Amino acid sequence: MAYTRKDVSALTRTERRRFVKALLELKRRGEYDEFVRMHIEYYLADGERGLRTAHMAPSFLPWHRKFLLELEEALRRIDASVSVPYWDWTRDRTTSSVPWTEDLLGGNGRPSDRQVTTGPFAYAEGNWTLREGVTDEKFLTRDLGRARDPIELPTKDELEWAMKDPVYDVSPWDSTVTKGFRNKLEGWGTGRGSVAWRNHNRVHRWVGGVMVGGASVNDPVFWLHHAFIDLVWSRWQRRHREHRYLPAEPPGLGDLQRGRVVARHEKLPPWDVTPDELEDHGGIYRYA
Ligand code: CU1
Ligand code: CU1
Q1: Where are the domains positioned within the chain?
Q2: At the N or C end, where does the chain have fewer CB atoms within 10 A?
Q3: Which segments of the chain are extended strands (E)?
Q4: 3-287 has which CATH code?
Q5: Threshold 0.90, pTM exceeds
Q6: How far is the CA of 55 from the centre of ligand 1 (A)?
């Protein structure tokens, strides 16, 4: 039977405690850092050569859907009552709202070095030392809202702008496309400042610290953010039933994107699963 992913603001005290406890146990076992490592490994930009799977590509959504499922399975082996909650940042928009509480993810980083010093993931607690990263910092960092150069979380209207596009993605299937649901949600824009970061990307920027860049999985908010992105994809699928993942077929001979993006029925590395097979999650989990 399918299990439920809940809005993080609706979790009971017990559910909060069990979610945090399972994350800390996964970290203690060394399994959590494998997820961090994998995300760094698949952090390939479209300026580079090779197949893009996780970012700047149509498979951004199915790749993270599968990535979350793997994490969730690992958590559920520790505590079968746990699922990944989602953070609706169109509603919980301040630095003191969920999930930034003592009993969940802790609060902002301190001004001097952005180190998170509150909650279960504070370095001094001894349970959350960063081991995989793109910098040498051993502690979790955050800069919620970017104090020195403030930005806002995306609004309902900005999310709706992505949601109402009925086409999943368009050629050349990368970070430069200005049409299509996928990049409007992933959020690679043009120009300078906060307009260049939309929806998904803007949230990474708003959290700041390790959430900016390939090692973003080091902040457990990564999962809550991506659970919401996954829910948004679900809602888009329901709203535009006649529309599906694109490209349906691999780009043709002579197309510069040939061999660089995953088509609907191709395997999505590193897994033995296709975007087609990941479109319907209803048999595994549902959103409340
Ligand atoms: Cu990612
Ligand atoms: Cu992300």
Answers
A1: 3-287
A2: N
A3: 3-5, 285-287
A4: 1.10.1280.10
A5: yes
A6: 6
